[in-house]
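re: ur question from yesterday

yeah so i grabbed the chain u mentioned. its 512 aa long if i counted rite. heres the sequnce exactly as i have it in my notes:
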Amino acid sequence: MIEKIRWYMEEQHMAGPGSRIVVGVSGGADSICLLHVLALLAPSFQWKLAVVHVNHLIRREAGEDAAYVEETCRQLGVSFYLTEVDVEALAKSRGLSVEEAGRQVRYRAFYEAAESFGADRIAVAHNRNDRAETLLFHMFRGTGLDGMASIRPVRDNIIRPLLCVGREEIEQWLREKNIRWCIDKSNDTDTYTRNKIRRHILPFAKEEICPEADAHLSQEAELLALTADFVGRRAQEALDRCRLLEEASDGSAGPEKARARVGNQQECRPSPVKRIRIAVPAFLQEEKLLQTHLLRLVLKELSGGGKDIGMSHIRDVESLFYKQGGKRVMLPYGLEALRSFGEVIVQERKPAAAALAGTEEEVPAAHFFQKIDMEELAGNIGDTQNAAPVLTLACGGGKILEFSLFRRENSQIIPQKTCTKWFDYDRIESLVLRTRQPGDYLSINDKLQKKRLKDYLIQEKIPVQERENLLLLADGSHILWVVGHRISSAVKVTDSTKRVLRVHIRGGEEDG
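ran it thru and got these structure tokens back, copy pasting raw so excuse formatting
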């Protein structure tokens, strides 16, 4: 296995002679294997190693894992960096999943240790099975070629030497070397979506379809990564053919005042506004595949990475090329796309920028945003509904929303009223009253299937002119209540609910 990993690292140009490598080590089988393998290879390449261990302060045995990793580093003569962060608290404060918050904490710790150690590489322990699971995860959620490329062996200064070996091979090697590893019991639960793929879907595929399913999926991810790189290069060439720049004279956005990015470039300059303009005739001449990836590049550039940009957003922008001027779509990251004469413009949304700056007088009524203080609510919880203090919030039009929090009694009946709704408070991480944003969704049934807010509003035949002003009670992109309409099934009060959040519209009609 050592030679296989060595060959793979050389093939992928992961680390040259004399590299200083920071290794992320949780204490699990994969990361312990990675550390020992790199320690064995280090003398041949004059590598210097350091280890980063992140304690998420979630599991009771996490301290024992940290101590084991530190002792292993001492035996190997490797520098050890420890980071401790309350990930659950961080996730709640930032409105993130625990999984995402943990990932952010780990990589921040890796980069900080790399800077301190003077490292030019950061090694993480994803293996072939992880690559297969990620491919399935992205496909199920809906993704393009980049997502199906799954985990890449090298990304910037991040390297993944174990992508060429599977989990069973890793554990077998550790047993042969009599090297123990720590067990993370959370991996044996279905708490995270990836665990469900790991514990149920892939084992079923290996048993019922093909014993080498994980290896084949990893190979497909490798092929898709090469395909994604090829298409990405062609898409960039297509974007260069279609992109328009402002003229130096007046910065006008009209096509009659613009030139394509071919020739006479000394007379053009980028627009002072953060936007990209695409000529419609040139775009429509491109291959369909390149059109999709061209727009992905545009949204990625303007959003600073485009983590939450999905195919639905790309399709929304694409539709503008077939519509008349004046049409507009809202996008994540405070962006919008609009159809003008002979071009489609993707740019920052000025009202959103004003809202972030706190200049409310510059923000139209349609861009309402007000955070509700959950700490204040929790600090004023009542033992009964009648004893719970009420927090009020004016929301325009003479209406006031009243929020109260109380402990549920087993015999309580949940009211079925249009202007009063009950929510399971412990399923909510953040509370904001706002108007709609791209990416909004709600759960529509007991299976917690998601529906885009846009699709729900169309289904309910809510007029287009009313949608921008419709108030929403939201937890991130999860819409808890379309005010005056339905609530999300994910936060309904059940027999297991302990704390109830009651929200009432004063000034509305209790028409059931």
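noticed a couple things. The radius of gyration is 27 Å. also The chain has three domains: 1-232, 275-348, 369-506.
anyway ttyl
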